Amino acid sequence: MKRNIVIATVTAAALVAGGTATALAVTGDGGDSQVKQSSVRAADDDRNDRDDSADDDRDDRDGRVDDKADDKAERAADAADAKAAKVTAADAITAALKSVRGTAVSADLDDEGSSLVWDVDVLSSGGTWHSVSIDPGTGKVLGSHTEQEDADDTAEARAALKGSSVTAVEAARAAAAKGTVTSVELDDDGRTPAWDVDTTAANGAEKEWKVDPRSAKVTADTSSDDDSDDDGSDD
Fold first, then answer.
1. How far apart are CA 124 and CA 154, in angstroms?
2. Which among 2, 26, 75, 111 could bridge 42 via Cys, Cβ 3.0 to 4.6 Å?
3. Does the CA dihedral 37-33-156-12 come out positive or negative?
């Protein structure tokens, strides 16, 4: 999974009462805690296998019709997944930060096996990265584990977060008018940093948006279209 950089500063000093946070058996160097089962099932957990099989078949025949069918099925599954996630990206980040102290640096709605989960990465003040799984149906913490990242990557993440007045929660909420937000990421590759937000429409169409890290203004992301054109020119 691509590392998504989002920001949401923790304002509460105490962990969630009732043992929610302490129930997370966070381990070191990538060790997993016991992760509970998500309450939300993925719309089509074997679609990747089906796509691989279809790709093999298309090696020997014209697959334009099948491509359209696969695309339609994929969009339907994406739409179903987005609709099934009752917990928003903003709420998933908030839930993760209530269980682990630090700054959220990633949030993605992923299908893991047969289930959907929100994966939220949190960077602690000591430099440790925590990956927290949130149930997209209930907002409850399913589990977490720690990860070791390269020191340079960690420094770049901190530098990218510096100076942004718009949090991930605010960026997600700003882009929510465009569709269901499925990921939020701080783009620090260009000269002007911006929040990259992915949305899924009711028909399953996916779009990318730029959210200004200072004003929260939402604009269409045209860079992905340019990348697609460049890829096509190599064929």
1. 10
2. 111
3. positive
Note down pLDDT in tens along the chain; length 235 residues.
344 434 343 333 333 333 333 233 333 444 445 567 888 787 764 444 444 444 554 454 555 666 677 778 888 888 888 888 899 999 999 999 999 998 887 799 988 888 899 998 888 888 899 999 999 999 999 999 998 888 888 888 888 878 788 888 888 899 999 999 999 887 766 667 788 899 999 888 999 999 998 899 999 998 765 444 444 444 4
Tokens of 75: 């969009």
Closest of 228, 109, 211, 233 to residue 164, by C-alpha: 211
Q: Which whole-number Å values give the CA distances from 231 to 208, 224, 227, in the listed order?
A: 18, 11, 6
- Share in percent of the chain as helix, strand, coil (round to 5): 35, 25, 40
Tokens of 194: 């911006």
How far does Cα 172 stand from its chain's mean position? 11
- The position carrying tokens 């890290």 is 213
Full strand arrangement of the beta sheet holding 194-200: 141-147, 129-134, 115-123, 103-112, 180-187, 194-200, 206-211, 218-220
CA pair distance 17, 19, nearest whole angstrom: 6
